[in-house]
Each structure stands twice: as C-alpha cells, then as structure tokens.
C-alpha cells in the first residue's frame, strides 16, 4: 500500500511541476519599417492604441494613425522663434508640447488638431525644460534644469489649462552643475501615485514624490557623474518599485562603464548592471510590457539593444545609431524616433523555458 501511495505522490509532484513550467517570449531579432521621413529631430513621442504623436525641432509636431499611417503635420511659430519641442504629454482630451530654451512655451493641442493654445510661458536666461508627464486626467508635471538651487518644476491640477511653479523651498536642493538632459522625454516618470525625476551632470540622483510633488525624497545613484555631460540621460519604471536608469558620457559614447543601474525598491537603492558590457551612451531605455520588469530595450549611439534578465546582459538587435526615443505599443511592437524619421519596430521572439 505504501508503494502505491509513494508512486501517487511522485505523479502529483511531476504534474504540478510541469504545470508551473511556462514559456516567455525572448526577443531574438527586430524588423524595422520607416513610417515617417522628414527634416526633423524628434526626441518626444507618445504612442496610443490607434495614434502616435510626436514633437521636434523647428516648431514641428504631428500625429500618425497607426492603422494606415495617415499623417498630420503641424508647426508652431512664436515671435519668429524656431521652437524646439523635446517634451510631449497626452491626456484623453488634449496633447501638450513644451520647448527647451528661453522663453519656455507650453502649448495645448486639441485632439482634432484644429486648435492650439498657449497655456504657460516662462522667461529666464537659465530656463530649459527636459520632460513632461501626466499622472492622471487632471494632474500633470514638467521638470527642467535649475534656475535657482533646485530643479525647475511646474504642475497643473486642471488637466493642463493652467500651470504653476513649485517653489524652490518645497523642492530638494541641487548642487552646482547638477541638471538634467532632454534626450528622450524620460527624465520624468510617473507610475501609479509615484513621480520619479532623475538628474545628471556633476551629480546624478533620483528624486521621488508620492504626494503629487508636495514632498520629495532624494537618493544617490552609482551612475557615472562629475562632469557636465555625464550622468542619467534616461529612466523608466516598470511599476512603482522596479526601475532602470541609463546614460553615460555623451562625449565618450562608446564607453559602457557605470552607465546602467536597476532598482527594486522604488529608487531608494540602485545596483550597477552590465558594467563594462552592453551598450554605451544611452538616449532612451524602456521596459518591455508584460515582462514582469525583466526585459528592456535601449536606443542610443551604439544601436538598439535588448535585455531579458533585468539588464545584466544585452543583445545588439540593430546598429541603427540615430534613434533618440522609443515607446511600446505592446510587447511585440514599438515605435522609435530620431534624426529625420520615425520607425516601427516589430520584435521577433522565440519561446524559452523558464
């Protein structure tokens, strides 16, 4: 009798283990299709289920229907200035674009693209906005380089119709030479109720708020820093806990030392990964959807790279080195933009046993 019971238990354990074996898609290659060619530098895109919005230099912005790639192109001219839009955010009711440089102009564009409204202006010799995001339908936030002894942060609480500055006394102090990089509209990330800002230059840190910017915590990172063009250039968070930062030295783009780090506790502590391997200077990093935070894709000066182990190891998917920013439509399709183009990335995968 004991013999049969033991055999029965073995069979149960075998079936149970077999049921726990799952397959996970591992990206092995990428197919690239150009969907826009224009004389434009694009560092800010937004990808929705049916539509992609972009903004770039020379006051240019636009939208592409993802079903048929029908295109809309717009241009904003303000006082004969050639505005360079590097921040873009979207709500259900409108699209918002924000330029770098002085003066700063923040525009609201209606969903039907028929109306453009200037909703915020700021003049200062040091003004330079880097990134903009919305937490929900009413609360939005944009951040930029310091004009005093803190990062320059503005917020909206009415869906983008009006914006106001967070006073410096309510923000963490920065050190001389600490700023941010408008590389891909990814210096500012929102996940749930958490807001993350990252800095670079002489100091490269992570700023976290869980109460819509009323209070902040600041955490050190191990990313290379200390010079004006070093530090974090891009960040992404899979959720409120798992995050990834990347960057490096813009003036030495092939260097892959101290330019990648991951957190599992919401930015409090960071661990260097792939130190001395993988990509060099990074312009934009994004988590692959539905990957539990394991999979990431990066674009930058050394090509398109992919990791499936929380950034520990990286595979070169393509050597294209003029893409600045990337966003996912789903776990197998992404869109990236850069110098004079927007491309569709179709990610090919193979099944791997976990």
Automatic annotation (TrEMBL):
It comes from the Bacteria. CDD domains: Sialidase_non-viral (cd15482). Pfam families: BNR. Gene3D superfamilies: YVTN repeat-like/Quinoprotein amine dehydrogenase. SUPFAM superfamilies: Oligoxyloglucan reducing end-specific cellobiohydrolase (SSF110296). PANTHER family: PHOTOSYSTEM II STABILITY/ASSEMBLY FACTOR HCF136, CHLOROPLASTIC, PHOTOSYSTEM II STABILITY_ASSEMBLY FACTOR HCF136, CHLOROPLASTIC. This is Oxidoreductase.
């Amino acid at each position: 009798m004991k013999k049969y019971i033991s055999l029965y238990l073995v069979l149960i354990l075998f079936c149970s283990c077999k049921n726990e074996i799952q397959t996970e898609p591992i990206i092995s290659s990428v197919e690239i299709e150009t969907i826009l060619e224009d004389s434009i530098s694009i560092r800010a895109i937004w990808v929705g289920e049916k539509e992609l919005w972009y903004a770039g230099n020379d006051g240019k912005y636009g939208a592409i229907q993802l079903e048929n790639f029908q295109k809309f192109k717009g241009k904003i001219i303000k006082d004969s200035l050639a505005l360079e839009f590097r921040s873009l955010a979207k709500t259900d009711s409108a699209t918002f674009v924000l330029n770098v440089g002085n003066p700063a102009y923040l525009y609201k564009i209606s969903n039907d693209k028929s109306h453009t409204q200037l909703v915020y202006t700021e003049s200062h010799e040091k003004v330079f906005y880097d990134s903009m995001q919305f937490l929900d339908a009413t609360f939005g936030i944009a951040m930029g380089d310091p004009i005093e002894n803190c990062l320059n942060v503005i917020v909206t609480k009415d869906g983008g119709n009006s914006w106001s500055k967070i006073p410096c006394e309510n923000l963490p102090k920065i050190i001389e030479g600490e700023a941010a990089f408008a590389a891909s509209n990814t210096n500012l990330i929102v996940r749930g109720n958490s807001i993350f800002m990252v800095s670079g230059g002489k100091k490269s840190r992570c700023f976290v708020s869980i109460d819509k910017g009323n209070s902040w915590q600041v955490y050190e990172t191990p990313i290379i820093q200390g010079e004006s063009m070093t530090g974090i250039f891009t960040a992404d968070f899979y959720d409120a806990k798992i995050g990834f930062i990347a960057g490096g030295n813009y003036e030495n783009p092939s260097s892959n030392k101290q330019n990648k780090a991951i957190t599992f506790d919401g930015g409090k502590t960071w661990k260097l990964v792939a130190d001395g391997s993988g990509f060099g200077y990074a312009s934009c990093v994004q988590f692959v959807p539905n990957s539990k935070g394991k999979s990431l894709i990066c674009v930058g000066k050394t090509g398109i790279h992919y990791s499936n182990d929380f950034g520990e190891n990286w595979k070169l998917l393509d050597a294209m080195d003029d893409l600045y920013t990337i966003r996912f439509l789903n776990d197998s399709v992404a869109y990236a933009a850069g110098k004079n183009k927007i491309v569709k990335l179709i990610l090919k995968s193979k099944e791997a046993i976990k």
